[in-house]
Structures are given as structure tokens and as C-alpha cells.
Amino acid sequence: MKSIMTLMASAFLASCAATGTAGSDVKPYPKDTCIVSDNKLGSMGTPVTKVYADQEVKFCCKPCVAKFEKDPQKYLAKLP
């Protein structure tokens, strides 16, 4: 389990480096719930983490990522 988490973290960091966000000031996600559904993170399996415009965003599942990507500003407005 620990090696899977390490692999996932490495893949995430590699994707950040590829998009130019690694090393920049990415704001951490401040909530313990999904930005789209408000479900508790981890309640639907391993949460999905993305970086959008230097803001870390967390989702309970992949379908929520698709909903977010259709109208990101609607959901980002929920953040403090």
C-alpha cells in the first residue's frame, strides 16, 4: 500500500513538472471534502488531486473531475 502511494505521489509530481507548476506557489486545498460533490475525501476511494491555475484541488472520484473541468470557476468560487 505504501509503495502504491509513493508511486502515485511520484506520478503526480512528475505531471506537475511537465506542466510547469512544480516549484511554483501552489496553494494547498483547504477542505476535507470534494470541491464538486462535498463528499468526504476518501469516501469514494483514493481522492484525485489536480492543480488548476496554481490552486490544488481535490476530488472524491474521477467523474467529479469531469464535472469540474466543464466549469472550473463555478467550483473554485467555493474556496475561501
Biggest sheet, spatial arrangement of strands: 1-2
Structural class: alpha+beta
Order of helices and strands: HEEHH
Rounded radius of gyration (Å): 13 Å
Query: Kindly state the mean pLDDT as a whole number?
Result: 82
Domains, number? 1
Explain what you see.
The longest helix has 18 residues, at 2-19. The protein has helices spanning 2-19, 62-70, 72-76, and strands at 48-52, 55-59. The protein has one domain (25-80). By secondary structure, the protein is of the alpha+beta class.
Describe how the helices and strands are arranged.
Elements: H1 2-19, E1 48-52, E2 55-59, H2 62-70, H3 72-76
Features:
globular; 3 helices; 80 residues; single chain; alpha+beta
Short description:
With 80 residues, the protein is an alpha+beta fold. The chain has helices at residues 2-19, 62-70, 72-76; strands spanning 48-52, 55-59. The chain is built from 3 helices and 2 strands.
